[in-house]
Amino acid sequence: MEQALSCSYRIARAGAIPFSPPLASPFSHHRNNPLSSSIITLRRKRFFEKFISKMANYEGQVSSGSSDVRSGNMIFEPILDDAVFRFDCSADDRDAAYPSISFLNSRDRETPITNNTHKVPSYIPRFECLLEQQVVQLELPAGTSLYGTGEVSGQLERTGKRVFTWNTDAWGYGPGTSSLYQSHPWVLAVLPNGEALGILADTTRRCEIDLRKESTIRFISPSSYPVITFGPFASPTEVLISLSKAIGTVFMPPKWSLGYQQCRWSYLSDQRVLEVAKTFREKSIPCDVIWMDIDYMDGFRCFTFDKERFRDPKSLVEGLHYSGFKGIWMLDPGIKQEKGYFVYDSGSENDVWVQKADGTPFVGDVWPGPCVFPDYAQSKVRAWWANLVKDFVSNGVDGIWNDMNEPAVFKTVTKTMPESNVHRGDGELGGCQTHSFYHNVYGLLMARSTYEGMKLANENKRPFVLTRAGFSGSQRYAATWTGDNLSTWEHLHMSISMVLQLGLSGQPLSGPDIGGFAGNATPRLFGRWMGVGSLFPFCRGHSEAGTTDHEPWSFGEEVGSTLAA
């Protein structure tokens, strides 16, 4: 390889052969980068040479003094405890693996346990190559039921389904939509004997989870990646406890965030916000939080307030607090490209934007028009954003809502930025990589930055962050909701399985837009949805601009009186 730039694509650590991704997610040459006059040349290597690995019989190959057990080229070792195993295609692949972003502590994935009882895994995956992608297949006993796969629509059991982990702005999704707002390359298997097993493909790249073959789990993704198995344990609960030791538990939310919350795209003035709050109290309908959608901003510029309609946010917050409400405000990643706008000027001065392959900031259209996007993969950018959040919270902000952070980009076929864009990430996250590497964790890293900013503002208070996009591990920083659903009975039904799937994938703090975001709910649908929604960990009514009002009293006296305390 030619001499690398100070920000070069790290293909692999020493000892591994570089790979070339498929055409669906190409690496672009990095030309004309102002950081250096050098040019990155990515030499295409046949993936086949590296990743073909056929499973041999591993019996008799376990050394009583070794935690590195070889079967063909594949290796495995216990991590965390003697029922959790890491598998890699080869020793070289293990050495070349990128750090884990999903793990609470990436070192836990890299460190074999030393006090193991020399157990070997009950089920061993097979590593193969298919069209320059690593395929990992785990065959389980006939009659195994499969669950998990994160934020997915459709039925609770995932047996027979196929999911693609690629965070996508999926307005109006249906039961067959294959990619939603979050990515969880995780499957929970319940075996015929009642035991349960979990498997995590620890890759941030686009990953196909193919469960169409009976009792078989199949992951397909570019590049080599480790897989982690958890169990089998006596129950699914024990599997999830073990998973939480790896990727972390949900953050501790403030108590006020566990009740009913009211949102609308949008309450267009501070007076309308106070009017809604007052009506809740007059009608004795329990509600703890009012949400401010994007229209509170000055021209959709993040960290600003409309000078006419929300001219005094501190007074608005004081009014809400007086009536027993908290206020949550939206922040998107798209920053308007406009000289004189303090966030854009500060970000440009500090060189925080995601770049194109030529080293210039990427510009894409979102709500404010042309926007640039913070590169949250850099610690200095996360600190920059956290300080903006800290100042923002000084206005009395109680919680923050991160939306559009897949990241969503308008006027594109893909609904996001080009995969050839460049993130100059921290080495502990994977270093400088194309967007294809960081896309699925962009929302997680934004939520982390926002959470850290709220901690800076009030270190003695529990932060509350809601994120639309996420990845395995996002629960450490934020709650989530199931995105832009529809006001239909089908979506009411799906909301139950979607919340359960997220919980079975390590994200227990979630809920849908009660009543449906798009469309007009009927009184009967809304009333039923409120009844179900009261049992969800995150309980919020929300509706789209242009629809009828979706506050509880809007559906008539019968619904309103039923919901009254």
From TrEMBL:
Entry GO MF terms: carbohydrate binding; hydrolase activity, hydrolyzing O-glycosyl compounds
Pfam families (UniProt xref): Gal_mutarotas_2 (PF13802), Glyco_hydro_31_2nd (PF01055)
Keywords, in A-Z order: Glycosidase, Hydrolase
Entry annotated with the keyword Transmembrane: no
Domain Glycoside hydrolase family 31 N-terminal: 136-210
Domain of life: Eukaryota
Domain Glycoside hydrolase family 31 TIM barrel: 251-561
BP term (GO), one: carbohydrate metabolic process
Similarity comment text for this entry: Belongs to the glycosyl hydrolase 31 family.
PANTHER family per record: ALPHA-GLUCOSIDASE, HETEROGLYCAN GLUCOSIDASE 1
Name of the protein described by the UniProt record: Glycoside hydrolase family 31 N-terminal domain-containing protein
Organism: Pisum sativum (Garden pea)
